[in-house]
């Protein structure tokens, strides 16, 4: 019997972290050790996660390839599949197909300063590449992370934000929207684009990686341009609805570009060449 | 393989059909009670039509079924198992009397299902498929095969292509190993050809597909899409009758502990096709969805899959409830 490309790996939920009231992170382990040994992926790639009986949903692998033996995914309870996922407990089974798609070109970024900018639930698709470059810390110069959410309770990976804040080799700026702060909030208050403009990181020998809701991207781009970032040095990920994940089911394309095959990682230069269909 | 040409007499054709039908599944066109032409498994030879222009549905379901299980599962709380579909159980099927447009469509489907990573569900069915095509001696105003590089006697996709002669006999072009193997098994039914001329219909060329493809580059924002999709009701009929439309959905269906994950035909014309969970929809209006349909077939597929996504069968137009005519639109598109 040949390979069934639609068949997921069976994974066991090893750990669940409640990131916010409706966002969860699962640590998943392969049930079959032979499959675990064969499996490898790179930062930026995604998969189809499934609850048998509910269907599949597309999200990135949120853990870095530098951490072996498991993968992590972070999702917000929103649709049928993510509601099904949210009902699962440690020890339960999740299906996973992947990895699919292209990767962040982190080898090309060696020797450069990295500026990560994320908003809300868009930190998970970036967490993989952030940790990947932190785990290879000596290969990169300054690493700056700007992360914002609507409110303090909407910040995901709170335990990791604390770690990053304490590390001398990472500059972390966290912010919440005005009104979203708590009395003991020590980060910034304001929208990501304004906070970024105030921090004014240098664009010299730097790469910017940007993920967030469309409105955040819209207002952050002019700031990056003002700081001197070139379109080719700004990266983001696109997310379109998918079913297969490998260029056959016909729904994720933006013009002739398949988000599942040619993406999800694109430079801003590539994005500008696309029709507005994302 | 070197192709060869034989003659098969009307009575021998009946014998060939009956012998094939006695030993394997033969999928052949019949005229149903409601006068619609449909393909059926192993109808009696007397029922098989040689006089149809187009069946209501294409024959793509032979290689890409309307609904197809991808695997079965059993879902306990912690113990879940997945059972593969045994693709070796897919039977050999002889597709009989399908026209050149429909047979060429298998190549277009292959360009999607075997692009990048191979989809075994499709490939295995294609492996087991033998196509005995039938050239067209009839056509109507909806036909436009000659506009997309085909003809009433195109051999693309056929293993054997039958073409009618004036006296009721058929010329048989043997085009592939699979075709040759059938002819060898029934060699007594085939004779040397006398070189008689075949009876073919004439299909007028309506547009130049290369010109359309080149016009589509840069036509994304053209007002054409809104103007020409205003009456589209997004019913998806065009995609369901289309022999090359390959877009699909994947869903789960469970009864108790057991269930199946299946794929089923889908349509880019449906409003929910690209809808995100957040409510955002990249193709949020019908004009964007109509543009996707044309662009996919005449721009994206030629570029990414080295194949046109249209064979000119005319079903999308003849089956459209609001009478949108794709050939007319493509004709207009080449001049925008």
Could you describe the 3D structure shown?
The complex is a heterodimer of chains A (278) and B (336). Chain A is an alpha/beta fold. Helix content of chain A is 22%, strand content 31%. Chain A folds into 2 domains: 9-100, Elongation Factor Tu (Ef-tu), domain 3, CATH 2.40.30; 113-237, 3-Layer(aba) Sandwich (Rossmann fold). Chain A has helices at residues 33-38, 80-86, 124-135, 158-166, 192-199, 214-226, 268-272, and strands at residues 9-20, 23-30, 46-51, 55-60, 71-76, 93-100, 113-119, 143-149, 171-176, 188-189, 206-211, 234-237, 253-254, 257-258, 265-267. Chain A has a 7-stranded mixed β-sheet with strand order 10-9-8-7-11-12-15, with helices on both faces. In chain A, strands 4-3-6-1-2-5 form a 6-stranded antiparallel β-sheet. In chain A, β3 (46-51) and β4 form a beta hairpin. Chain A is globular, with a radius of gyration of 18 Å. The mean pLDDT of chain A is 95. Chain B has one domain. In chain B, the strands form 2 sheets. Chain B has an 8-stranded mixed β-sheet. Chain B has a 4-stranded antiparallel β-sheet with strand order 5-4-12-11, with no helix packed on it. In chain B, α5 packs across α8 (286-304). The longest helix of chain B has 19 residues, at 286-304. The termini of chain B are far apart. Chains A and B meet through β13 of A and β4, β5, α3, β11 and β12 of B.
Features:
heterodimer, A: 278 residues, alpha/beta, Elongation Factor Tu (Ef-tu), domain 3, Rossmann fold, 2 domains, seven-stranded mixed beta sheet, six-stranded antiparallel beta sheet, 22% helix, globular, B: 336 residues, alpha+beta, eight-stranded mixed beta sheet, four-stranded antiparallel beta sheet
Cα distance, first to last residue of chain B?
43 Å
* CATH top level class name of the largest domain in chain A: Alpha Beta
Order of helices and strands of chain B: EHEEEEEHHEEEHEHHHEEHHH
Oligomer: heterodimer
Strand content of chain A: 25-35%
Large-scale geometry of chain A: globular
Point out poorly predicted stretches of chain B. none
> What's the Cα radius of gyration of chain B?
21 Å
Strand order of the largest sheet of chain B: 3-2-6-7-8-9-1-10
Mean pLDDT of chain A: 95
- Count every beta strand of chain B, where a strand is a DSSP E run of 2 or more residues: 12
Percentage of β-strand residues of chain B: 15-25%
Major sheet description of chain B:
8 strands, mixed
Q: How would you sum up the global shape of chain B?
A: globular
User: In order across it, which strands form the biggest sheet of chain A?
Assistant: 10-9-8-7-11-12-15
């Amino acid at each position: 019997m040949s390979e069934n490309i639609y068949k997921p790996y069976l994974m066991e939920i090893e750990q669940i972290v409640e990131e916010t009231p409706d966002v969860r992170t699962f640590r998943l382990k392969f049930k079959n050790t032979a499959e675990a040994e064969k499996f490898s992926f790179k930062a930026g790639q995604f998969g189809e996660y499934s609850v048998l009986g509910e269907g599949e949903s597309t999200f990135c692998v949120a853990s870095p390839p530098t951490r072996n033996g498991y993968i992590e995914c972070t999702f917000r309870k929103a649709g049928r599949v993510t509601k099904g996922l949210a009902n699962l407990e440690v020890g339960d089974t999740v299906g996973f197909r992947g990895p699919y798609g292209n990767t962040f070109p982190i080898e090309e970024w060696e020797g450069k300063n990295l500026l990560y900018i994320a908003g809300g639930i868009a930190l998970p698709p970036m967490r993989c590449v952030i940790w990947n470059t932190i785990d290879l810390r000596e290969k990169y110069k300054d690493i700056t992370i700007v992360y914002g959410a609507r409110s303090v309770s909407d910040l995901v990976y709170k335990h990791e934000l604390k770690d990053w804040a304490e590390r001398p080799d990472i500059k972390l700026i966290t912010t919440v929207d005005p009104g979203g702060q708590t009395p003991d909030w020590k980060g910034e208050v304001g929208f990501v684009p304004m906070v970024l403009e105030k921090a004014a990181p240098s664009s010299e020998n730097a790469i910017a990686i940007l993920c967030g809701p469309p409105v955040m991207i819209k207002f952050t781009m002019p700031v990056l341009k003002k700081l001197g970032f070139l379109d080719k040095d700004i990266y983001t990920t696109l997310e379109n609805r998918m079913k297969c994940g490998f260029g056959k089911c016909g729904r994720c394309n933006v013009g002739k570009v398949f988000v599942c095959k040619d993406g999800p990682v694109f430079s801003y230069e590539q994005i500008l060449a696309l029709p507005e269909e994302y | 393989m070197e192709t060869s040409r034989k003659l098969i007499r009307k009575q021998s054709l009946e014998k060939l059909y009956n012998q094939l039908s006695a030993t394997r599944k033969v999928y052949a066109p019949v005229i149903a009670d409601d006068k619609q032409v449909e393909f059926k498994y192993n109808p009696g030879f007397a029922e098989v039509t040689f006089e149809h222009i187009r069946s209501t549905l294409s024959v793509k379901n032979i290689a890409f079924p309307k609904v197809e299980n991808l695997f079965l599962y059993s879902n306990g709380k912690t113990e879940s198992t997945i059972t593969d579909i045994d693709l070796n159980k897919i039977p050999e099927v002889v597709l009989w009397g399908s026209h050149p447009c429909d047979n060429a469509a298998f190549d277009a489907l292959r360009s999607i299902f075997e692009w990048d990573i191979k989809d075994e569900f499709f490939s295995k069915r294609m492996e087991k498929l033998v196509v005995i095509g039938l050239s067209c001696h009839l056509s109507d105003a909806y036909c436009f095969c000659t506009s997309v590089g085909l003809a009433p006697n195109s051999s693309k996709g056929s293993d054997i292509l039958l073409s009618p002669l004036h006296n009721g006999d058929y010329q048989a072009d043997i085009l592939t190993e699979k075709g040759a193997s059938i002819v060898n098994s029934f060699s007594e039914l085939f004779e040397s050809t006398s070189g008689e001329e075949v009876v073919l219909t004439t299909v007028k060329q309506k547009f130049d597909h290369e010109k359309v493809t080149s016009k589509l580059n840069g036509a994304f924002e053209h007002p054409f899409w809104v103007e020409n999709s205003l009456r589209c009701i997004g019913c998806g009929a065009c995609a369901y009758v289309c022999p090359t439309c390959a877009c699909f959905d994947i869903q789960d269906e469970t009864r108790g502990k057991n269930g199946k994950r299946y794929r089923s035909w889908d349509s880019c014309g449906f409003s929910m096709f690209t809808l995100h969970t957040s409510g955002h929809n990249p193709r949020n209006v019908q004009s964007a969805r109509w543009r996707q349909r044309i662009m996919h077939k005449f721009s994206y597929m030629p570029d990414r899959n080295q194949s046109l996504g249209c064979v000119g069968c005319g079903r999308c137009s003849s089956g459209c409830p609001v009478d949108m005519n794709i050939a007319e639109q493509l004709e207009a598109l080449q001049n925008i």
